[in-house]
Amino acid sequence: MLTPANCHVRLRSFDALSNAQLYAVLQLRSAVFVVEQQCIYADIDNADQQALHLLVQHQQQLLAYGRLLQVAPQQVRIGRIIIAADWRGQGHARWLIGLLRTSASQCWPDAEIVLSAQTHLQHLYAKCGFHATSEPYDEDGISHVDMRFA
After folding, report:
1. pTM greater than 0.85 (yes/no)
2. What is the chain's pLDDT, residue by residue, as a tens digit (150 residues)?
3. CATH assignment of 4-149, given 3.40.630.30, 3.30.2270.10, 3.30.420.270, 3.10.20.30?
4. N- to C-terminal Cα distance for the chain?
């Protein structure tokens, strides 16, 4: 059984990603956000170059991913949070969100941590210490809500 204990967690800048890692990230993001969620949007948004990328891999397979992006001097945004389909439903999302939050706090100790959650996942983020700071809004045809870590 695959567990977080036998995975490799890497936090990388864009320039430190290997070609294979970058390809795996873009492939997983496309598979989930564009194909699975049937959402046509510009995933390659010119933010990756400034972001830190958290990759969870087992051997060469990318199982989970998220990115951290400083959006203001005292604010960092967690985004593009993904769990590969065959790794879902086992509590790994909470683990990944915790890794991203911890990484954000270590890299930007005084920054507020925010994210934009798909509304149907708001309860998951609430369990991880985030609370809503906006009313639901449409983003690329999917209902979202802004959230901040308390």
Report:
1. yes
2. 556 678 999 999 999 999 999 999 999 999 999 999 988 888 999 999 999 999 999 888 999 999 999 999 999 999 999 999 988 988 899 999 999 999 999 999 999 999 999 999 999 999 999 999 999 999 999 999 999 998
3. 3.40.630.30
4. 34
